[in-house]
Amino acid sequence: xxxxxxxxxxxxxxxxxxxxxxxxxxxxxxxxxxxxxxxxxxxxxxxxxxxxxxxxxxxxxxxxxxxxxxxxxxxxxxxxxxxxxxxxxxxxxxxxxxxxxxxxxxxxxxxxxxxxxxxxxxxxxxxxxxxxxxxxxxxxxxxxxxxxxxxxxxxxxxxxxxxxxxxxxxxxxxxxxxxxxxxxxxxxxxxxxxxxxxxxxxxxxxxxxxxxxxxxxxxxxxxxxxxxxxxxxxxxxxxxxxxxxxxxxxxxxxxxxxxxxxxxxxxxxxxxxxxxxxxxxxxxxxxxxxxxxxxxxxxxxxxxxxxxxxxxxxxxxxxxxxxxxxxxxxxxxxxxxxxxxxxxxxxxxxxxxxxxxxxxxxxxxxxxxxxxxxxxxxxxxxxxxxxxxxxxxxxxxxxxxxxxxxxxxxxxxxxxxxxxxxxxxxxxxxxxxxxxxxxxxxxxxxxxxxxxxxxxx
Length: 457
Fold this sequence. Notes:
Blueprint: H1 2-43, H2 49-55, E1 65-70, E2 75-80, E3 83-91, E4 95-98, H3 104-108, H4 142-152, E5 164-171, E6 174-180, E7 190-191, H5 195-209, H6 234-238, H7 255-262, H8 266-271, H9 287-301, H10 305-317, E8 323-324, E9 338-340, H11 342-353, E10 357-358, E11 361-362, H12 368-372, E12 389-390, E13 411-414, E14 420-424, E15 429-435, H13 445-454
Antiparallel strand pairs: 1-2, 2-3, 3-4, 5-6, 5-15, 7-9, 8-9, 10-11, 12-13, 13-14, 14-15
């Protein structure tokens, strides 16, 4: 009896220690996630605090937190039961940065001078200019297309909120369909989450075009020079095949959440991870990998870094709503934190549909679109290229693919709450869906694509 009682007490004590340890790790993540997202939604997207608290932060476990905007110093704070306080600060052009490890005063004093993003010319038709087109295609069933778009907004699952916020459809470079949820419009900047990874990949393509880096380059990080990590190439990083140890899990404390919500220098945090597999032997999706790439870009570009994408991508395309946010060290969070309007995300898709050219100017290497959309060897369903998701299918069974009713040449930028930029070369189409769908898989992308594509003969 005494042994049983002792055993029970040991189990209870162990459970208590585990629970306290979990809380100690999890509460700052909840606080940080809430403070950062509330800050950006209010100061970048122009939304109300009430709408963000209800939608982004209203479900468990985020609802455990208390979050508040401070208009006086353009910030937002978060805490959980009065503990684990976190603060995010807004800086014009840079969006919001979560204060982690570096004092607020030091972050605010960083000298980051941003060049303005050029506006598209009035004289050209959108997406190349600001003039609206009245082009009508005879082979487009606009009634069927509008039904397909309307269905993407339908809340027909009583236990799950789909929360579609925008759909934009381009065909042959023309806008043929568009719709927005209440409170959002064509100018509302929306978070791309991991669609930002495809922006980071594009930055590498631009740097390759400018002769600043090669995808075969290794010895990419100073701390790696004396171990096997020095063999990791940029290509392996872009293909999520570096072999670095990582846990991409957002349900609790993990490599990904500790990086995003506790670390000042996210690229350095990820680069410190040890090698778990031989490079190229194993495919594993990792946000840390992307922030390593962003840090490599900063080291290569030096003082040009903060304006490089503005000068080489956002201004040529006229992506004026774009905000790419840095971490506390000043390095862009290339894995997750870019905001842009759905139309600007659509421009990005059209840019790739054009093979990396815009208004007749080849901005990317001519083979870059082919490179990023070529399947990575170890991705089991041929579902990943170089920081873009693919629909290629299993190597020996191509019908086994992510979207069986969409063409196999489709590739996309994907965000974890159902944000998508689909690029479909064989259909000459770009399809954008923005949203905040919390339950993964509850929005049927295959059916959405099938119905939109069926409207275009």
